[in-house]
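Milestone M4 deliverable, item 7.
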Amino acid sequence: MKKIPKSRIKNLVRELEKNYDIIAPVRTGERVFFKELGPDDEVYLKSNPTNSPKEFFLPYSEVLFEFKKTNDEFELKPNLESRERILFGIRPCDVHSLLLLDLISGGEFEDPYYKEKREKTTLVSFSCLEPMDGCFCTSFGTGPSLKDGADLLLTDIGDYYLAEPFTRKGEKIIKSKLFENATKRDKKIKDERIKKAEEKIQKLDLEKIPEKLASLFDDKLWDELSKRCISCAICTYLCPTCYCFDVIDEGKMFTVDGKRIRCWDTCMFPSFTRLAGGENPRATKKERLRQRIYHKFKYIPDRYEKFGCVGCGRCVRYCPAGIDIMEIISQIK
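Output delivered:
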């Protein structure tokens, strides 16, 4: 176990940039966003970014492969190249979200594009000592800190960050001369601060929520809940565990050459489930909002025995209509 003075964090980032691309929180105006660091960017660690880190593993839009037809043969050129990189400043809730995406993108139908980016990314996580409005991560068995999922965990203990590596990737980082040996007192300070942070976070009772949803599919509750929704989909675009997508083939005129592109989509848009003949099984806001809640708290738990929400609070903080997923869960209870 090591520690690093806060004054050396900038030096650590610059040192890591020699061998990695760095993705980190950067303050832009009044917002904080995860972005790939440029030469003039400063890392900002005081709050969780507005956007989630999923866009660096499942990009807004990415070319899956290029295709070209020569005579009667198709040639495919997969787009699987990526550089080693570090996601610096990721909070425990977002680490938890990546563990869930690992389950969804793995298994029998593994997503090689996601896997390539995931394997080449080192996660340097920061404990959340000042939870933001709308956070409810402790409801899902996680919290403001973690014991696995990240490669290295840094926790603010005053003038220093306590550094706890969980993998060889994390151990490699703390070999830097910028780190110092930590003490038992440093660990005690960390534990005390984490406990205080946990006490600030609202915790929901999620017991038997999937079972209760099983009997509420046709309930009038969904009519009432959906009245405020404006179908902007900001909840799903900012959510670290939403992964709906569309696929299009973009070709060149007068040839059979082109590329296949995967881009974000959302179950909150009416076009997402519109069929070729014009029928739509989720034509109304009621059906679409219900689908989002069932996906997070019924369908994913049934399949993976984990909730599809990590309690990051982004959908609560940024919904322009003030829809609060915590209130919805309370009404379901």
